[in-house]
Amino acid sequence: MARRRSRAIPLVALAVGLFGVAACSSATSTPAAAAGATGAGAGPVRIAVQIAHHKVSPADAVHAVHLGDQVVLTVTSDADDEVHLHGYDKEIEIAAGRPGTIDFTANLPGIFEVETHKSNLQLLQIEVK
Ligand SMILES: [Cu+2]
Prior knowledge:
Blueprint: H1 9-23, E1 45-52, E2 55-57, E3 61-65, E4 70-77, E5 81-85, E6 90-94, E7 100-105, E8 110-116, E9 122-128
Parallel strand pairs: 1-4, 3-9
Antiparallel strand pairs: 1-2, 4-7, 5-6, 5-8, 8-9
This protein binds copper (II) ion (CU).
């Protein structure tokens, strides 16, 4: 009899996790078990970063957010690129001169880098605690 197997979400998650690690050789995050949300809920935390002539501004920023916060990260560049938020493994394509947004709930504690894959820049780090 055809036994209904639950979909292979754990496998996919594992594969994505491995790929993320393989794709980027930057400092690792520590995805502990997600705890209950503690976000205060005063609207999303907005983080914006610009890239121009291969320079990031603000440079080397570390943004601390609370576990459970809603975060809206906006990246604008003068070149087409691909933006990757580590740990959460969110990736977007951005076009030159047009802001791109990564929207996520900070439900994984740790320090996560955001980088570009074409220009290979580290944009910022997001510390979730
Ligand atoms: Cu990456």
